[in-house]
Amino acid sequence: MDIQLNDRLVMKKSHPCGCNTFKVKRIGIDFKLICEKCSHEIIIPRVKAEKNVRKIIKTDGE
Ligand SMILES: [Zn+2]
Fold first, then answer.
1. Degrees to nearest 5, angle at CA 51 with 9 and 60
2. What is the 56 CA–ligand 1 centroid distance (Å)?
3. Contact 3/27 with Cβ under 8 angstroms?
4. What pTM was estimated for this model as a whole?
5. What CATH number labels 8-57?
6. DSSP state at residue 18
7. Domain ranges of the chain
8. What is the pLDDT of residue 26?
9. How far is the CA of 20 from the centre of ligand 1 (A)?
10. Alpha-carbon distance 42 to 59, whole Å?
């Protein structure tokens, strides 16, 4: 799965605030994601994050 820094991820599971779009702030064994609505940071294992992605929104338009 081609996830780059600063991409926005539409997740299958939404954040408790109701938003399901997250911005990628760090990539590694874990992903650090920022909720676009409430700016809450979450850190989840890469495998778990990839399983949960519905759509990747590229910021630079490729
Ligand atoms: Zn949120």
1. 25
2. 18
3. yes
4. 0.89
5. 2.30.30
6. S
7. 8-57
8. 97
9. 8
10. 20
